[in-house]
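Hi all, long-time lurker, first post. I run a small reading group and we've been trying to get comfortable going from sequence to structure in the token notation. Rather than ask abstract questions, I figured I'd post a concrete chain and ask someone more experienced to write out its structure so we can walk through it together at our next meeting. Sequence below, copied exactly:
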Amino acid sequence: QVQLVESGGGLVQAGGSLRLSCAASGRTISSYSVAWFRQAPGKEREFVSAINWSGGRTFDADSVKGRFTISKDSAKNTVFLQMNSLKPEDTAVYYCAAKPGPIVNPTALRGSNYEYWGQGTQVTVSS
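-- Answer (accepted) --
Happy to help. Here is the structure in token form:
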């Protein structure tokens, strides 16, 4: 079992920045893929960013490219999502998720492929 705990959400003005953290515990995730998804009220959950723990390959949704950066700290077993130039449309609950094995094909970046999920953290961007 892998436990994921997100933190770092909050209220920020448009154009501001936030850094989300996802701390993993339980089983080692050295061969896992860890991703961020988000869900806004009344909308479906959508992929945001992902990182392969081994090798560090990253993937980003088109809507966040150039603004969000995913990274990891292996010593702390933690994944970060640095969010810059935030927009009101980024408002959502952000979830951290993990799955055994790396992502090779970006078509696999679907929530249904991820086995472990955190409880979510709210990000609200005011205009």
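A couple of things your group might point at:
DSSP finds no helices and eleven strands in the chain.
The chain has a mean pLDDT of 96.
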